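Reviewers of the previous submission asked for a worked example of the structure-prediction workflow described in the proposal, so we include one complete record here. The input consisted solely of the amino acid sequence. No template or homolog information was supplied to the procedure at any stage.
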Amino acid sequence: MKKTILNLIVISVVSLGYSQEQPTSFSLQEAIDYALENNRQAKNAVRDIDAAKQQKWETTASGLPQLNATVNYQNFLKQQVSLLPNEFFDPFSQIRNLDEYYSELSSPTGIPEIQSGFTEVIFGTKQNVNATATLSQLIFDGSYLVGLQSAKVFLEISKNAKDKTDLEVRKGVINAYGNVLLSEESVIIYEKNIAVLQKNLDETTKIYENGLEEEESVEQLQITLSNLESSLNNAKRLRGIAYQMFNITLGIDYNTDVTLTEDLEDLAEKNISLESLTQENDVTSTVDYKIAQNDKRSKELLLKLEKSKALPQLSAYINGGYLGFGDDFSFLEKEQDWAGFSSFGFNLNLPIFSSGGRSAATQRAKINLEKSKDDLTETEQRLKLEIETARSNYKFATEDYNNKKQNLALAERIERKNQTKFFEGIGSSFELRQAQTQLYAAQQELLKAMLDVINTKAELETLTNQTTNF
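From that input alone, the workflow returned the following structure tokens.
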């Protein structure tokens, strides 16, 4: 029976592990969707919204009825002694002896004289319990009303911060995804070029061994091959780093093996859109502008808060409780006597004079509000400039991409012609090496141009808050 239960537990755990297994193959849109749910910054932004909601209710609850109870138990290890004059006690106990008493009765006054001095007495019992419950209600407080408005603004700020984080995460995923594709394409191109160059080197070596080619031609190809192999090794290292960065951006372990299903050239073609260049430049809909607006709104509320401190505060309360006394701990017994009490009242706080402190705080809040207004204007102007710059960069990236495609086609034709001329004996090894170097540079420039199209489009969409699905 125990073995059966153990097997069921193991099966359940294994099934749960498979059900929660993270994906290892991503298109760009799948990677973005996954990161928006699992990226650590995105998750913390969601937590910030939840915290803001709790803070909003915390502020609201401070003006609702509050019920508090206290229980106080005291046990005097040594009770305090008080001194009372002897006059408070029986005069018979204060005279020196009875004979003196009778003799004093025969005095002219007929009143016996009492000896002066004090007697030690203890008031109260050794142990006591005080249990009290108090119900309070805020009736009016200007700062509370401002606090309610501030809580709403703070929640709005948290939501805007979440939108900003999502945009940045999206852009980060696109950049990381593109870098991985770039590194993969670089490795493929280097390996392809090395294979072609190795074949050329082998053929040239045979021609040189037959005495039909100079040794310099072999050495030129060897130099080029050595450079390519070094670049290939570096590209492989960069590919590993690119994958790790991609994993971190998605929010998974950085050593996880993942597969990307997109192609760099196809992705670049998808991101070429003239609509992004013709959309209106409305900065008021951007997240950065909304954040600046919220900052101005918060400064307005801070000014209202400082002004509200000059208003009176009114609250009411009602409380009640019981007191228990005894020289022994008998408070849990039925015979224990309890004395009840209760009261009701109001608390009114009237700010009268603060030596100019409240006025100074109000003026400081006004200054900060004026600064936030200028900051909002500055943000609006800066966003317009950044959007125009991003559009210019995106337009240049698309134009440069088309130019680099044409340059690569020309470089490939030039390299093929020089390779033919070299093996036919009418071209030099220097010319061939120069054509090959030009081809390799054109290949890398085209890859970079593809990545620039993707990244500049992501930057523009992040600024304008107008994202598209892939």
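The chain has two domains: 22-63+141-311+355-464, 82-121. We consider this example representative of the routine output the project will generate in years two and three.
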